[in-house]
Amino acid sequence: MSTTQTTSSVTGSSAAGEPLGFDPEALRAKYRLERDRRIRPDGIAQYRRTDGEFGHDADAPDPTFDRPPLRDRVEVAVIGGGFGGLLTGARLRQAGVEDIRMIEEGGDFGGAWHWNRYPGIHCDIESYVYLPLLEELGYLPEWKYAPGEEIRQHARAIGRHFDLYRDACFHTRVSELRWDEDSREWEISTNRGDHLRARYVAVASGTLSQPKLPGIPGIETFGGRTFHTSRWDYDYTGGDATGGLSKLADKRVALVGTGATAVQVVPHLGRDSRHVYVMQRTPSSVDVRGNRRTDPAWSESLRPGWQKERRDNFLAIVSGGQTDEDLVSDGWTGSAQLLRKLMPSATFSQLPPERREHVEEIVDFQKMNQLRARVDEIVQNRATAEALKPWYRYMCKRPTFSDTYLETFNRPNVTLVDTADHGGVQRITHNAVVVGEHEYEVDCIIFATGFDVGISGVLSDRLSVHGRGGVTLAQYWQDGPRTLHGFASHDFPNLFHLGPLQNARSVNFTHILDEQARHVAAVIAEARRRGARYVEPTEQAQADWVATIRTTAPDQHKFQSECTPGYLNNEGKPRSRSETYGEGPLAFHALLRQWRSAGMDDVLVDAKH
Asked: Which fold has domain 73-210+453-550+583-605?
């Protein structure tokens, strides 16, 4: 079904009562058809975790890196050196905590920005609101959407500014946390043979830290070069994150995956490779990017407090709040009313639920029609253009933005291979990628297949956590997470989690992480002021919060079930319930501030007790 066919029937009306210019039922049918083409019975099991060379840290100074095991004690151990860990360390420093140990599996600070250095890498959230602590460091990004190297260097600058390199442990993975009731400390074991102790532990290991690969038969037998985009091999390709992949001039390359990473990588591969085969299961929606350098006149006009104002403004808009002005004014804020399927908002809240759902769907159809029309405007080959059109609701996949991705398919050396009817790439031979009846001979296969999304170390088998009495967190949460505000659990004293679990979401996750880091630092600071032996939510406070989550969490099962499969809906098998605070991030952050100002009495355990 082409865009012309879809819009030929005029039925129904918009929220303003105007004729739509398209047939909603025809679009619903098309969406169902395209979803069903891509459903796989194995769901998330189609992927496997990486190991070996796919997990290698490109920044390691020596593959045989080693150091003597540590045997010491700190007040706070922070697990993870991405922005979550850095913000926790920074806010703890501001709260007066000096004895901090940062533990990070990579070779330096940066988290996802340390590992991901593929060509074209940029943030897709405006850098003035995405990069944290800009005012504290006196820094302003050079671009509206900063390149990865600038972000990575900013992460390191945070580490230097707040003296977080002191006692930091890099190339170190925490394997076990075990609570010692007698000393009221956590015993920390690592893959380096360390046995550390800490009064408090903050886990900020992230949910985009473990790359995944498709379980394609023959993947291990390919005779050419293979790597994951998060472990880009510049020794093989030449160039750097800005491009210039000169060593690919005589190479045939297959790129597997067409998500947010591929949208940034493909223009460089298309420009520099002999030939590129882009293996696509589901196309991304691709809107205008419009990146530009920071305006010096604008930067000189900024006054103290500008980043908080801008960041709060962005969060309010994308969360459906009311503002007098859109300070960021980009693709995210312009499509804010469509983001409710990712995070709750007050958009159209004055309407009855059924009417609200209908209006949201119509607005969604209109936006996606525009994005499909953009494909027709840019891509010259009609068959390629049809294959690149996204037939699903806006938030079924994370939206992408680029002014060069679609244009790359006009190059004669770039071939789009639609794998939807075959469940993806079917197998790999010694020298080819096989889809259907066709073998595409290639010299290199690059996997842009993403990460285990939403699975932190404590939710997997990579970090074993033993609380009071030896019970594991996995056992304690076997019927679902049990926390207070997403941060702490009863019987796991002095342990804090950062991440999306049982709290609020936003497309600008660094803002969420900063609010979480402020909260953790404030709780620890108050515990120190009171001389508390440990911080632990009461069972009743925890039960009340879980009930709040169950009551307010949005029911997105129907929406996600109708989406084309991807990581946001667990590859077509959405989870039965959400663990998100249903009133949205603005209300959640206000709730935390109120809770802290009220005294935190349902969590702090005083020494006199």
From this structure: FAD/NAD(P)-binding domain (3.50.50)
